[in-house]
Predict the 3D structure of the following.
Amino acid sequence: MALQFSPQADAKISDICRRYPNTQAACLPVLHLAQDEFGYLSEDVLELVAARLAVPSSHVFGVATFYTMFHREPVGKKVLMMCTNVSCMLTGAYETLRKLEQRLGIKAGQTSADGEFTLIEEECLAACADGPAMICGDRYFLRVTADKVDATLDECRKLPAQHGHHPHSDKKH
Ligand code: FES
């Protein structure tokens, strides 16, 4: 069966289209929604978004590749975005990142072997006063110095997976 949005996601897209001046502007929120829905933005997903919004695929591909928050490859159940921009760097973000890499057994940009976490080195997360800052899903973790990595990962493990609906994980009844 061809890839398609769930009825709930489709209704949300209609709602987004009503609120944005044109479908090109709606592209950003719809890509967010598509990522929530499918986990990452494969070529098929980008084509689906382009078709749904009736905008050129090139526009959708351009937007998806411009923003680091969009994943073009499969990601783990949770994505850790670790800021290493200036303010966070000055409070030890690189030490934190190295410790995260060590604990998860991966490098930034990779996914842990158990599929639980994808670690991404990110630009400013707008929490500069409380760095080093990290986001897991929609939750902020602040002042995450290297010594807090273990406790922070424990917290993150308790959070729900970030993308619920996935066409390949649907159970057939
Ligand atoms: S520099 Fe890290 S949140 Fe702004």
Observations:
- Residues 165-173 have pLDDT under 50 and may be disordered.
- The chain has two domains: 8-66, 78-158.
- The chain is about 45% helix and 10% strand.
- The helical segments are 7-19, 23-38, 43-53, 57-66, 86-90, 93-104, 149-158.
